Amino acid sequence: VREFKLKVNVHLQDPDSLVWTxxxxxxxxxxxxxxxxxxxxxxxxxxxxxxxxxxTAYKTSTAPDKYNWSKVNVSNLPSxxxxxxxxxxxxxxxxxxxxxxxxxxxxxxxxTEVTTLGDNVIVLINGFSDRLSGIVEINGKQYFNICKDGKxxxxxxxxxxxxxxxxxAGFPTENISTTQTSTGNGVEKVxxxxxxxANEKETTPWFSLDGKGWAxxxxxxxxxxxxxxxxxxxxxxxxxFYCFGGELDAIYSSITGIAWSKTETKFLLPQEFKxxxxxxxxxxPTKDKTVAxxxxxxxxxxxxxGNGTKNEVWRGRLNRLGFEIQ
Length: 326
Fold this sequence. Notes:
This protein is mainly β. Helix content is 0%, strand content 39%. β3 (47-51) and β4 form a beta hairpin.
């Protein structure tokens, strides 16, 4: 009789559950001062920054075991900067001002104006690996353009030589949330949502394959669209699209980004989120080829604060994205 030893690996955690950590239990919050202005959180490298004004930010490592906030003195950001416009591209941060100028920083602290991008920039849109998409204003109209080097627009912005696509009605220009996925044949695809909503009843995602033009994923089926919500966050996460925002009382999911349904089990927001107020949401992906569970990311960071809301930090993750074997 031959004996065989059978080893069975059993995950004690439900792989499809979204688990949230109240980071106040892991360390102090970045600031106890309630900020009446806007705040914005953004990831640069392995650090999470929260900007509370044009002169002050806070940062922590995003490594699971290195959560610890420190204050950052921010220099050379003008007082009319829109903190909510902050995006990361190619190891640098970018922000746009009310006067339509662009500033960038490679360390999150010292900022310089990117004068070559001009003074007619409405918003910058990230998500693509090799370009920023943006909206520029020419003769009172808005057009899409792209920038690959972080300094220069690819197409000329002069009115007499205009080859740019005009921004369609209803396209969001504030508080834009982007997520990257790919088409069936592997082409990079970015999907976004933002403010203002094209109509209050519905949150309409938009997608682009090149950043030069964006198409609506509007849904005409009345019972399967994503409901209208303020400051929606959209993410492609664990092979599904998810969208949440507004009162933070529900998450909506979609396979394609067109037909949406409310998640009823497992992938849920904590009760504590409901009606909290202002927030920033970031998904920090795991770097390619990461195997060790301790180095896995795929964290959903929710940072409350700004607009009179108390500062709080929460971190969520789908259990199976932290397992060693996918």
